[in-house]
Specification:
Number of helices: 16
CATH superfamily of the largest domain: NAD(P)-binding Rossmann-like Domain
Number of domains: 2
CATH topology of the largest domain: Rossmann fold
Structural class: alpha/beta
Distance between the termini: 43 Å
Oligomer: single chain
Bound molecules: nicotinamide-adenine-dinucleotide
Largest sheet: 9 strands, mixed
Radius of gyration: 22 Å
Helix content: 25-40%
């Protein structure tokens, strides 16, 4: 089964803070057994990367600071956001067959960091991740390299050559900005922001990353998945003709909920239950459905110019559900008039489907089936399912191989930002019930972020006396605030 489907069924099991999917795969197990030492020395790696990155273009740090040269020969990794995906990504980085070490960890919460560290250093990963073997010889994070709180990322990033950014997406823009400012290669999870102001920041940082030749991989892992890559190749060869329209789905039962605990400040509650607050999550159209929307953008080769749609909350009525909708249906329009229809739903007992289809002038691509069918229903291409890979592992294998060789190969930041913006555009359309234009939304400067990140911050979005949060009502919510009521 393709890994992407596991995210729908495995990741968001109620009450499970640590997802199944990103940590688990047979590939992971095999890799533990077949880890090889890197041939290239740290010195060679630095020489090559320094030459490529052009140290003169990095004014903030000396060369020694940039590579933390005096510690050891390994490529040093910092993990920012030690939850399910961050822990999984750190494991995959360690299993990349390069000489890699995890040297720093940062999380807003001590208990999350500790749990992640325990998992990463377990004698036997089968207890926590379902695999025999371990990676603990690659985890070198002393107590003073563990950073807790909102500012921890600054110090963790400084200790590394490569940074894994896996917090809720609301923080991605400032974390990515800092990583690039400090001259680090980046693996960052999708989505890369939750609001247009954040997207602009990511686009600016992605441009600087290009100038500095810093590799940036975004966890839109279908780009690293064999079946999608082969379908894309065949599509480019013209097997289904020209793009006509597309459909995509992320319909599932929904995700975890973390209940409010006594004595939590409003900031702590929202941080713990982050999925339900737009400044952190972006709504599920952004947080999950971006994967499918991004596939259509990728094959289409562009981004929609406008969108309109409908959505709301049918079953998500309780106070534990913050402000997000439980369904969205959006019609995205590209510049040539072609349409992407997108639907995402979090409602138990309804049809589950996580998939993409692209209709061309000569046939259709069924991504879930990994095939292409002509107008008469004849299969004209079928991907050999035995050749499928684990894209979560491949994105790290490819990134770290490039870094080890001193190659500048990956610049996923801009696409990550524009596909995230497409998903945000969908949310703006369903919240407002209006036609929303991509450029106007991007240039609106809308930010959902609180004025400061502190535990006692005055949150833009607050519950009423009964504990319920305001929810967008299409037609009644002005577009300028329709990222949620906290927009500014
Ligand atoms: N590519 C995929 O298939 C995939 C799968 C799962 C998750 N993700 C993405 O990974 C990200 C994290 O998701 P998750 O499921 O791991 O969530 P999670 O809640 O398990 O982990 C998030 C972690 O970040 C920490 N955190 C929050 N704010 C922070 C801050 N300012 N500084 C440092 N740490 C902070 C939290 O305390 C938590 O430990 C999301 O963007 C999600 O969309 C991607």
């Amino acid at each position: 089964m393709a890994s992407y489907q596991l995210e729908a069924t495995g990741r968001h099991v109620a009450g499970l803070d640590f997802p199944q999917n990103p940590l688990t795969s047979s590939v992971l197990h095999k890799k533990i057994k077949s880890m090889k030492p890197i041939n290239e020395s740290r010195r060679d790696f630095m020489k090559k990367t320094t030459a490529i990155a052009g140290m003169a273009a990095i004014p903030f740090a000396s060369q020694a600071e940039f590579f933390n040269t005096n510690v050891n020969d390994a490529i040093k990794v910092a993990l920012v956001g030690c939850g399910g995906r961050g822990t999984g990504a750190a494991m995959q980085a360690m299993l990349s067959e390069q000489n890699v070490k995890l040297v720093a960890m940062a999380d807003a919460f001590r208990d999350r960091l500790d749990y992640s560290y325990t998992m990463l250093t377990a004698d036997d990963l089968s207890e926590t991740a379902g695999y025999a073997g371990n990676i603990k010889n690659k985890i070198d994070v002393p107590e003073n390299n563990k950073f807790v709180g909102f500012d921890g990322y600054l110090k963790a990033i400084a200790l590394a050559d490569v940074v894994i950014l896996a917090t809720p997406p609301g923080f991605r823009p400032i974390h990515f900005e800092e990583a690039i400012k400090q001259g680090k290669h980046v693996f960052m999870e999708k989505p890369v922001a939750t609001d247009p102001a954040g997207i602009r920041k990511v686009l600016e940082s992605a441009a600087i990353a290009r100038q500095k030749k810093l590799n940036v991989v975004v966890g839109l892992q279908r780009h690293y998945q064999n079946s999608y890559r082969e379908l894309y190749k065949k599509y480019q060869e013209g097997l289904i003709g020209e793009f006509v329209s597309a459909q995509c789905w992320w319909n599932s039962e929904g995700v975890w909920v973390r209940q409010r605990q006594p004595n939590q400040t409003e900031m702590e509650y929202q941080m713990r239950n982050w999925y339900y607050f737009n400044w952190l999550c972006g709504d599920h159209i952004v947080e999950q459905h971006i994967h499918n929307i991004d596939v259509i953008n990728w094959f289409k080769g562009s981004y929609p110019v406008k969108a309109q749609g409908m959505g709301g909350r049918e079953v998500r009525k309780g106070k534990e559900f913050g402000e997000i909708f439980d369904h969205h249906y959006v019609e995205f329009q590209y510049a040539d008039g072609s349409i992407m229809n997108s639907q995402c739903r979090h409602i138990k007992g309804t049809m589950s489907k996580v998939d993409e289809q692209i209709v061309g002038t000569k046939g259709t691509i069924f991504c879930g089936n990994m095939n292409m069918v002509d107008r008469k229903g004849k299969v004209v291409y079928q991907f050999d399912k035995t050749k499928e890979n684990d894209p979560y592992q491949s994105e790290h294998d490819e990134l770290f191989a490039a870094i080890a060789k001193g190659e500048y190969k990956f610049a996923d930041g801009e696409n990550g930002a524009k596909s995230t913006m497409t998903s945000i555009l969908g949310r703006l359309a369903t919240y407002s019930g209006q036609v929303v234009e991509f450029d106007a939304a991007l240039n609106s400067g809308m930010s959902l972020q609180p004025a400061k990140y502190t535990w006692d911050a005055d949150m833009p979005l607050k519950p009423d006396a009964s504990g319920l949060y305001p929810v967008a009502i299409p037609g009644a919510v002005p577009l300028t605030t329709s990222g949620g009521t906290g927009g500014k």
